[in-house]
Amino acid sequence: MAITRIVLSTRITFGGDKIPDQKAISRIHANAHKNCFIRNSVTAEVTINHL
Q: To 5 degrees, how large is the angle CA 49–CA 6–CA 2?
């Protein structure tokens, strides 16, 4: 049986006057991961590479 792993490579850029601090970024990331359509739709391991 083959093990399936999905790797997402993301690049996130903030602009403008309101740049979130590290605490806000961590909260945004956790919520995005929890609500990720891909993660919630497959049984494979999903990992994220931050560029």
A: 140
**Between 27 and 42, whose confidence is greater?**
27
Q: What are the structure tokens assigned to 6, written together?
A: 């999905």
Q: Please give the model's pTM, rounded to 2 decimal places.
A: 0.59
* H, E, C per residue of the chain: CCCCEEEEEECCCCCCCCCCCHHHHHHHHHHHHHCCHHHHHCCCEEEEEEC
Q: What angle do CA 19, 35, 48 make, to 5 degrees?
A: 70
HSE (side-chain half, CA atoms, 13 Å) at 3: 3
Sequence-ordered list of residues with C-beta below 8 angstroms from that of 14, at least 6 positions apart, any chain:
20
